[in-house]
Amino acid sequence: MKYVITFFFLFSLFNLTSQELKTYEKEIFVNENDTLNYRILKPLNYNPQKQYPVHLFLHGAGERGNDNVSQLIHGGNLFLEKENREKYNSWVIFPQAPHNDWWGYKDPYKFAYNVKESKAISLVVKLMDSFIERSDVDTNRVYVSGLSMGGMGTFVILNLRPDMFAAATPICGDGNPDLVNNYAKKIPMWIFHGSDDTVVSPKKSLKMANAIIDAGGSPKITFYENVGHDSWNNAFAEKNFLKWIHSKTKKQ
After folding, report:
1. Concatenated DSSP letters for the chain?
2. I need a labelling partner for 201 at 20 to 30 A (CA). Which of 34, 65, 209, 226 fits?
3. What is the CB-side half-sphere exposure of residue 21 using CA atoms within 13 A?
4. Contacts of 38 (CB under 8 A, 6+ apart)
């Protein structure tokens, strides 16, 4: 199994050429004694006098580490496609959680990642707090997407920063239904899941959607029949995935 995973990892990275990898600039965010690796894609034909949307992307558990590369395996190509760069020109930020951490937080919700204390999502929040202060950022168009562990992290960061985001797209994730009141009415959401997912049950997304509806929200939700855990491939292939996201502006 280890060799299969390694092969898949290498194959996925080979889909990104060395030049495309370099297009995502390597960065490190430092807060006191903690550091967060991340990659950032600068807007096409960047003009410092303009303001651009920001798209935060949270990876899954398999992409954790300290190489500052593997977080681009799923989704990295999506933002590099010529049409997407031209139509949905924005800052794109891919942080990377360490092997011994995850996109969780100190709330009653836990998942089987065997992490005693999580710092990663707190560092992402601090990075985003700092980044959106820039003069070249459109603070009314800040978005978050995440898959698997990152789908869980999407729900976590929405609760931590309910006034930051204009739209969210959690994919095959899960979360705490007791904490949706902070963001249910504020943030448009498109939830994705594979109906045959045996890693994270599709019932988890349904649970979150129901909680958001009960709290007065109106989420969009898509289940893919005969699709397992890798439903992010289907989500990325949606014709209106980025179009829907970029049509949203933060509710005042």
Report:
1. -HHHHHHHHHHHHHTS-HHHHHHEEEEEEEETTEEEEEEEEPPTT--TTS-EEEEEEE--GGG-SSSSSGGGTTTTTGGGSHHHHHHT--EEEEEE--TT--S--SSS---SS--SS--HHHHHHHHHHHHTTSTTEEEEEEEEEEETHHHHHHHHHHHH-TTT-SEEEEES----GGGGGGTTTTS-BEEEEETT-SSS-HHHHHHHHHHHHHTT---EEEEETT--S-THHHHHH-TTHHHHHHT-----
2. 65
3. 13
4. 27, 28, 29, 68, 71, 93, 94, 95, 96, 127
Write out pLDDT tens, residues 162-180: 999 999 999 999 999 999 9
Nearest CA among 177, 220, 172 for reference residue 198: 172
CATH superfamily of 2-246: Alpha/Beta hydrolase fold, catalytic domain (3.40.50.1820)
Partners of 7 in beta bridges: none
* Two tokens, residue 84: 């997407």
Q: Where are the domains of the chain?
A: 2-246
| Token output for 56 | 């935060």
Per-residue pLDDT tens digits for 44-64: 999 999 999 999 999 999 999
Identify residue 183 by its one-letter amino acid code.
Answer: Y
Euclidean distance between CA atoms 180 and 132, whole angstroms: 23
